[in-house]
Specification:
Helix content of chain A: 40-55%
Shape of chain A: globular
Number of strands of chain A: 10
Strand order of the largest sheet of chain A: 1-2-10-7-8-9
Order of helices and strands of chain A: HEHEHHEHEHEHEHEHEHHEHHEH
Oligomer: homodimer
Largest interface: A-B, 25 and 25 residues
Chain lengths: 326, 326
C-alpha cells in the first residue's frame, strides 16, 4: 500500500512535464559550494539558492506549473490565491510572466517587504485580518463571484510537481549529493524534492526541517496522520502552517528520511552566518536547513549535504545581529 | 603602434592557459539576471557575482594563475604580497588551495572583516602602518630575506590574464552581453575583461567605473599617461590606488570604451539596492557598476549590460541604511 505516484499525478512523466513548464517562467538557480559552512561543519556543504529565484523564493516554480496546467479558458479568467507572503509573490510573478490576471489575498500583518513586492507586481491585492481562515474566506468569496481558479500554496499535485523541479536541478548540478535539507511549511517543497529523489536517486536522503515552534510535520509523522498544532510561533514566518496537507503528509511519510527540528536561536544564527560568510540574504524560513547543520544535526559523517535556501524576502536589518553575536 | 598582446604575454593562448589554471582553484561564479535592476533601468541587466567567489572576491583568479606560472622551486619557497584587503585574501586562498606557503603584509587599518578572513586562512600575516608605502617596504624586506616571490595586486600580465577569466565566463554565459561595467582599483580586472572582449567579442563595450574621489584611471586617460592623484578618498576601500599601473593603463587606453565616475551617494545606494532587492551582499567597491546604472550612466539604450560585482567582503551593518533610504 505504498504511495501511487502515477495515480496521484506525480509520476516521472508528470515531473518531466513540470520541468518544461517551470523552465519557461523561472530561473535555474545556482547551487553554490559554501567554503565557510563546509569548514564549520567538517563536510562538503552546498547551497541551493532559491533566495535568488524570480520573486525571491521557490514559490514561482509551483505556480508556473499550475498556471500552465490550467485550461486556456480558466487561465484567461485568471487566478486567485491567499498567502502571508512568498506564495503570493510566486503566484503574482508567474502570472505576470504568463500574462494571467491574478488576485492575491494577504493579511495586513504580512512582512512589509513581501507586501511591497506583491503590490509592485501589480496583482490585485486584498488585505484582510490576521488569520489564515480570514484570508481563506475572503479568497473563496472572490473566487466564487468571479469564477477564478484558486492556486493553493502546497496541497495540490501540480504545485508539488512544480516545486520538485528544484530537486531535479540539485541532482543534476551536484551528482555527489548525499542528503538534502528542506524547509517545511506546508510541505510542498519537501514533498516535491523527496519525490524527485525517489524517482531518480533513491539513495539520496531528504530531510524536512521545521522550527521547534511549528513542527507540524514531525508531529504528524509521529501520530501517523496529519495533526493540527494547537498553536505555532517562530521567526520563520513562511513555516507557520499548523497542519501539513493530506497529500504532502502522505508523500513525506513515504519519501522523507526524517524531519529535524531547530531552535529559534539556531535559525537566527544561520541567517546571519549566511549573510556574513556566504554573502547571501536569506529569510529565516530559508535558513532552517543551515540551522540544522550549525546545530550539528545527526547526519552520517562525510555525507555531502545540500541545504535549500528557500527564499530571501526579508529586511536585512532583522538578520544582522539577530543571533546576538553580530 | 597598438598594444602587442602576444609580446606582453596577453595573447589568446595566454588567456586560454590562464583559464585552465584558474578553473582548478576558483569557482565559476553565477551570472544572475536582475529583475529589480532591469525594471529600474529599463534595460536587461545581469550581475557577475564575484562576491560569491572563493575568498569573497575576484582576486583569487589572478593569484591562482600567478602561482601556477611560477617555477616549481619558487612555488615551494612560497609567496608574499601586500594589500589592504581582497588581494591578500585572494593570494591566501589560492596559495592554500595550491599548497603554497604565503606571507601577507596588511595595514592595521584594514577592514576587520578582511583581516579576519586572511588570518583564518592561516597565512602568515604582518600588520604595519597605514600607508601603502609602509606595506611595500615591509614586504620587500621579508621577500629579500627569505627569497619569496612577490605577487603584485594588478601590475603583471599573469595577474591580468587571471582576472581575464572573469570576462570569458560572462561572454559564454550571456552571449547577448552588449556592455560590461567593471570596478577600477589598480585596473587589473578591467584590463583583463577588456582584453578578453577585444580577443573574442570586440563589439562588446567595456567601461571602467571609479569613485569620484579616486578617479585615477579617468585622470590618466585624459592626461594620456599614468598620473598619480594627490589624494584619494571613497567608501569603496578596494578602489583607492592613487595611480594605475603602466601595464593596466596601456591596456585601458587600448581596450576600454570609457571610464565612468560615480558619487559616494550612488555607491551607497547601489550596495543597499543589491542587498535588499537582489539578496546579494556586495562591498562598496563591488557596487560601483550598479551605481553607474542607478545614476543613469550614459549608455546606449536597450544595450544588455553586465555589472561585475567584484567582491562581498563587508560588514552588512554598514550597507544597510548606508544610502539613508533604508
Amino acid at each position: 500500500m505504498g504511495f501511487d505516484y502515477d495515480a496521484q499525478g506525480l509520476g516521472a512523466a508528470d515531473l518531466r512535464e513540470a520541468r518544461e513548464h517551470v523552465s519557461r517562467v523561472v530561473r535555474r538557480t545556482p547551487l553554490l559550494p559554501s567554503d565557510a559552512l563546509s569548514e564549520r561543519c567538517g563536510r562538503r556543504v552546498s547551497l541551493k539558492c532559491e533566495n535568488l529565484q524570480v520573486g525571491g523564493a521557490f514559490k514561482a516554480r509551483g505556480a508556473a506549473h499550475f498556471l500552465a496546467r490550467l485550461e486556456p479558458e480558466d487561465r484567461a479568467r485568471g487566478v486567485i490565491t491567499f498567502s502571508s507572503g512568498n506564495h503570493a509573490i510566486g503566484v503574482a510573478t508567474a502570472a505576470r510572466r504568463a500574462g494571467v490576471p491574478a488576485v492575491v489575498v494577504m493579511p495586513r500583518t504580512a512582512p512589509a517587504v513581501k507586501l511591497e513586492r506583491v503590490k509592485a507586481l501589480a496583482a490585485e491585492v486584498h488585505l484582510v485580518g490576521p488569520t489564515s481562515l480570514d484570508r481563506k474566506a475572503k479568497a473563496e468569496e472572490i473566487q466564487k463571484d468571479r469564477g477564478l481558479a484558486m492556486v493553493p500554496p502546497f496541497e495540490h499535485p501540480w504545485i508539488v510537481a512544480g516545486q520538485a523541479t528544484c530537486g531535479a536541478e540539485i541532482l543534476e548540478d551536484w551528482p555527489e549529493t548525499g542528503a538534502i535539507l528542506v524547509p517545511v511549511g506546508g510541505g510542498g517543497l519537501a514533498a516535491g524534492i523527496a519525490i524527485t529523489c525517489r524517482h531518480h536517486r533513491p539513495a539520496v536522503r531528504v530531510y524536512g526541517v521545521e522550527p521547534e515552534g511549528a513542527a507540524k510535520m514531525a508531529a504528524s509523522l509521529r501520530a501517523g496522520e496529519p495533526v493540527t498544532l494547537p498553536s505555532v510561533a517562530s521567526i520563520a514566518d513562511g513555516l507557520l502552517p499548523s497542519r501539513p496537507g493530506d497529500l504532502t503528509f502522505a508523500i513525506a511519510r513515504e519519501c522523507l528520511t526524517g524531519v529535524i527540528t531547530v531552535s529559534e536561536t539556531a535559525i537566527r544564527e544561520a541567517a546571519e552566518f549566511l549573510l556574513r560568510r556566504d554573502h547571501l540574504l536569506v529569510e529565516f524560513s530559508g535558513a532552517v536547513g543551515v540551522a540544522a547543520l550549525l546545530s550539528r544535526a545527526d547526519l552520517p559523517a562525510d555525507l555531502p549535504v545540500v541545504a535549500v535556501l528557500s527564499g530571501g524576502n526579508v529586511d536585512p536589518a532583522g538578520v544582522i545581529g539577530a543571533s546576538g553575536s553580530g
